[in-house]
Design goal:
The chain is of the alpha+beta class and 249 residues long. Among the domains are: 78 residues, lambda repressor-like DNA-binding domains (434 Repressor (Amino-terminal Domain), Orthogonal Bundle); 76 residues. Helices cover 39% and strands 18% of the residues. The protein is built from eight helices and eight strands; from the N terminus they run H-H-H-H-H-H-H-H-E-E-E-E-E-E-E-E. The protein has a four-stranded antiparallel sheet with strand order 4-1-6-7, with no helix packed on it. A four-stranded antiparallel sheet has the order 3-2-5-8, covered by helices on one side. Strand 2 and strand 3 form a beta hairpin. Helix 1 runs parallel beside helix 4. It starts with a helix and ends in an 8-residue tail after the last strand.
Length: 249
């Protein structure tokens, strides 16, 4: 079969298409197509992007995309490397972040505070439930000693606010697309290909990040609202969604 570039050029010519025609149909720039046909991948933005361009072009000219990707991996030495490594290497997704470290001193302070609250809350509750007569007697007794003025008790109400979750449903409706998904902690929760007809649902209480290799092939539903197709066929897009979002973040 020769090199990837030779195979890609032969497939295009066999389909009777020029570089300009392929570019117009796939929205992949002409210089990128020419570089791919000469086994050059820098203008693609790296191997991860080149992979998406090759699959898009192969689908247009009727070539075997798996065979072309195998030639790409052979040419670049990327055989059997996980997709997340390729995405990170090409700045498509951020590496996993480490969570903050908590010292033993901090844990001790938190534990002591909790114990103090467990003791204080029942005592305060008993005072607040005392009868008006007992409270009046306590106030009168305190007034007999000027040097020890009676304390003032102030009650308050604390309202906790719950942060809603974010839920994104992604469906492959126009073809297949490779997909990388990370949660708010930077953990990879999905890495693979979404085949036409498949649907995946992702949820988080803060943030979800997506890298979609063929944006024109998928449809998004964000927090119950249909957001449609996020891009063009063969286009690689980066999206992130948080609670309350209904479109790209």
């Amino acid at each position: 079969m020769g090199t990837l570039g030779q195979a890609l050029r032969a497939a295009r010519e066999a389909a009777g298409m020029t570089v300009a025609q392929v570019s117009a149909a796939t929205r992949v720039r002409e210089n990128v197509i020419l570089d791919l046909e000469n086994d050059k991948f820098v203008s693609s933005g790296g191997v991860a992007y080149a992979r998406g361009h090759i699959r898009t072009i192969a689908g247009l000219v009727g070539a075997d995309s798996d065979s072309l990707i195998a030639l790409l991996e052979e040419a670049t030495g990327e055989v059997n490397r996980p997709m997340i490594d390729l995405l990170t290497e090409n700045y498509v997704t951020a590496p996993k972040r480490e969570g903050p470290k908590v010292s033993y001193k901090t844990l001790s302070i938190v534990a002591a505070t909790i114990v103090g609250l467990l003791i204080l809350v029942p005592a305060l509750s008993g005072v607040l439930k005392a009868s008006p007569t007992k409270l009046a007697n306590a106030a009168a007794s305190a007034s007999d000693t000027p040097s020890n003025p009676s304390p003032t008790i102030t009650s308050g109400t604390v309202v906790a606010t719950k942060t809603s979750d974010v839920t994104v449903i992604i469906s492959a409706v126009g073809g297949s697309s490779w997909l990388g998904v990370t949660d708010s902690t930077g953990t990879q929760v999905f890495n693979g290909t979404l085949v036409k007809g498949q649907t995946q649902t992702f949820s988080d209480n803060q943030l979800i990040r997506f890298v979609i290799g063929n944006a024109g092939a998928v449809n998004l539903n964000v927090n119950g609202v249909n957001s449609g197709t996020p891009g063009a066929t063969g286009e690689v897009v980066h999206l992130e969604f948080g609670p309350g979002a209904t479109s790209q973040g």
